[in-house]
From TrEMBL:
<dbReference type="InterPro" id="IPR024096">
    <property type="entry name" value="NO_sig/Golgi_transp_ligand-bd"/>
</dbReference>
<protein>
    <submittedName>
        <fullName>Heme NO-binding domain-containing protein</fullName>
    </submittedName>
</protein>
<dbReference type="Pfam" id="PF07700">
    <property type="entry name" value="HNOB"/>
</dbReference>
<dbReference type="InterPro" id="IPR038158">
    <property type="entry name" value="H-NOX_domain_sf"/>
</dbReference>
<dbReference type="InterPro" id="IPR011644">
    <property type="entry name" value="Heme_NO-bd"/>
</dbReference>
<feature type="domain" description="Heme NO-binding">
    <location>
        <begin position="2"/>
        <end position="160"/>
    </location>
</feature>
<dbReference type="GO" id="GO:0020037">
    <property type="term" value="F:heme binding"/>
</dbReference>
Length: 179
């Protein structure tokens, strides 16, 4: 997993819960990196899972809800760092449906060894989208947070429903209906 995902996560935790919580999460985890991350480094997903588990235990917030908030936070990182990418789209459905064939292609140019989820468009209309998310890492709520902020970015609203295709969350159907 790319380091930017870790550095931004720790920044979010510090902003929302304080530096003491960051220290507590790292101290309670068995991290190969010792909690020292660089944005361009690559780290084990198990480290992110440990950090999320310890944050959840210490805050009483579910991992899914933590990932949702983190996805919403991470959209701002994309917005600030890659405004040209967002400017190529005029509609949230168009942008979300292009994750696999455009956005992930651009991400791989910056981070060639990034392990990204797969998004398969099942059905697309002007006002709706059905996609299947597949990943060995059950971070679909991170994706949901990004999608929520995508609609907000375009001053639009949608109802986004998640249906687990696989109970472990490694395959999820997103059903998006624009309001």
């Amino acid at each position: 997993m790319k380091g930017i995902v870790f550095t931004e996560f720790l920044e979010l935790v510090e902003d929302k819960f304080g530096l003491e919580m960051v220290d507590r999460m790292i101290s309670n985890s068995d991290l190969e990196s010792k909690g020292i991350y660089t944005a361009v480094g690559t780290y084990s997903f198990s480290e992110m899972l440990q950090l999320l588990q310890h944050l959840s235990i210490n805050t009483g917030i579910s991992i899914d809800n933590l990932l949702l908030v983190y996805g919403e936070h991470f959209f701002k990182v994309i917005e600030d760092s890659y405004p040209g990418l967002l400017a190529t789209y005029k509609d949230p459905i168009e942008m979300i449906s292009s994750i696999e064939n455009h956005i992930h292609v651009e991400v791989r140019k910056i981070y060639p060894d990034a392990e990204l989820p797969t998004f398969v468009v099942v059905q697309k209309t002007e006002d709706s989208l059905i996609m299947i998310y597949k990943s060995s890492r059950a971070m679909h709520h991170f994706g949901l947070g990004l999608m929520n902020k995508t609609f907000e970015h375009f001053n639009s609203k949608a109802i986004i429903t998640l249906e687990k295709v696989k109970e472990d969350g490694t395959e999820v159907r997103f059903i998006i209906n624009k309001n």
